[in-house]
Amino acid sequence: MRSSAMVVLLGLGGCTGLGAEQAGMEAGSSAPPESRVVPVAPTVGPFAGKWEACDGTNSPDECSRYVLLQHDDRVCGTWSYFASGKVYEGRIVARATSSVEARRTHVCGRPGSETQTECDDGWQRIDKPLRLCDGKLADLTRADGTCVADHQAVPMPDEERYAVQAQPWIRECLSRVP
């Protein structure tokens, strides 16, 4: 009787995927702490989403963008902007200090005004703000401390969010410091 119940439970676990998830967690738990990546919950938080600033351009390809995911106080994602006929893009790590304030701590990408470090070469440490002001994202602050919030939230399809979240560096970033 007991073995029949066990077979049924194992069968249900296989059908629901619980067995594979459990095996993955057990395999991950034997890894050294510095290489262990915690499974990331759905990314929610005030900074999570797709943000665009398109003022002064007629082409969507020339908008400045942030695509950000958030897990607890960790904010990770990508940035891009268009200048001098070129697209500059890269990765960003920030730490939310409140529901409207975060500090960018690491950046990498195509060298330009945002970074001098290619992502293949590692991370550049920075200390720059990200703020939410009147429902918009600001990456600049005026000398008097007020926001320069020109990035508006735009819809991000689930497929795009899943594709970003599936990137190994994002999963690692959302679970620990780069």
Nutshell version of this structure?
With 178 residues, the protein is an alpha+beta fold.
Would you kindly provide a written description of the structure presented here, covering whatever features stand out?
With 178 residues, the protein is of the alpha+beta class. It has 4 helices and 8 strands; from the N terminus they run ααββββββββαα. An 8-stranded antiparallel barrel has the order 1-2-3-4-5-6-7-8. The N terminus is likely disordered.
Set down the secondary structure blueprint.
Blueprint: H1 2-16, H2 18-29, E1 49-53, E2 64-71, E3 74-83, E4 86-96, E5 101-109, E6 124-133, E7 136-141, E8 147-154, H3 158-165, H4 168-175
Antiparallel strand pairs: 1-2, 1-8, 2-3, 3-4, 4-5, 5-6, 6-7, 7-8
* Oligomer classification: single chain
Strand runs, count: 8
Number of helices: 4
**Range of strand content:** 35-45%
Helix/strand order: HHEEEEEEEEHH
- Main sheet overview: 8 strands, antiparallel, barrel
Q: What are the low-pLDDT stretches, counting only 5+ consecutive residues below 50?
A: 1-39
* Adjacency order of strands in the biggest sheet: 1-2-3-4-5-6-7-8
Query: Tell me, what's the shape?
Result: globular
Which class best fits the helix and strand makeup?
Answer: alpha+beta
Give the termini distance in whole angstroms: 51 Å
Give average pLDDT, whole number: 79
Integer-rounded radius of gyration: 20 Å
Q: Specify the helix fraction band.
A: 10-25%
Q: Can you give keywords for this protein?
A:
single chain; 178 residues; alpha+beta; 8-stranded antiparallel barrel; 8 strands; 24% helix; globular; disordered N terminus
